[in-house]
Write the structure tokens for this entry.
Amino acid sequence: MVDSLLKEYQAKLDARLDILLSENGQLYDEIISACRYATLNGGKRIRPVLLLEFYKLCGKDDDCAYNFACALEMIHSYSLVHDDMPCMDNDDMRRGKPSCHKAYGESTALLCGDALLTEAFSVASKTLGVEPERVVKALAHLAASAGVGGMIGGQVIDMSDVKGADDDVLFEMYRLKTGALLKTACAIGCILAGADDELVSIAEKFGEKVGIAFQIIDDILDSVSDSKTLGKPVGSDEKNNKDTIAVRLGVEYCRELAKKYTDEAYECLEHFDGNKENLKGIAAYLLERNY
């Protein structure tokens, strides 16, 4: 059920991204080509799907949230381009293909990330069929989650030497680096649909819980999976001398911990009316994934 749901969403999102990132015969088309390579190269599209599902959960059944959903995926894609670069994690593969800097060179990959981040806000700002006040509020959430107090802050912690630090430091890194965009995806879906602040806050808690579980599973897979299954190098944490909860506490304990966070995410959904089965299914899918 979840697989078919994700494929349906992926097809619609990819069609929209294909238009938004179309080449137009300009001298700078190489950067558009790199943006397309980084964004239209597979991926589960979890963040935009969460946004769209919360939009539906709050009573909307139109396509007006798709620009924001695509903008969120563009920001996520930019973060992966930069994360793979030699100055960061120095990974050569992403989703079974050469990383953007391997395919296009480091300078183009750097600009590709910059372009995707900038274009994301341009795309989101052109949302039609939604009250302008909601669009502005959603843009503020998107900026905050992608910035210093969100994903960027988490990346900074990730690059620092956290060996020997309290577990709280690692969980703060997870909450920001991975959880921030997942959290804001849920919030923006509610905001665009006109939900009240209380429901927006509960949706954020759902996204935060799912985000921490997601990163714990990522760390487990980096330890126990293989490059062919993941579509990217494994053992990156060990290679980069990074401390993770999986390394520190062990795989089996961390699987239980990820389940605990997922169960807490389920509880958040009980505050919403409507059909919550898709969101429960997505959370379960992320917990049980092997790539």
User: Anything to note?
Assistant: The chain is about 70% helix and 0% strand. The domain at 2-288 is CATH 1.10.600.10 (Farnesyl Diphosphate Synthase). The chain has one domain: 2-288.
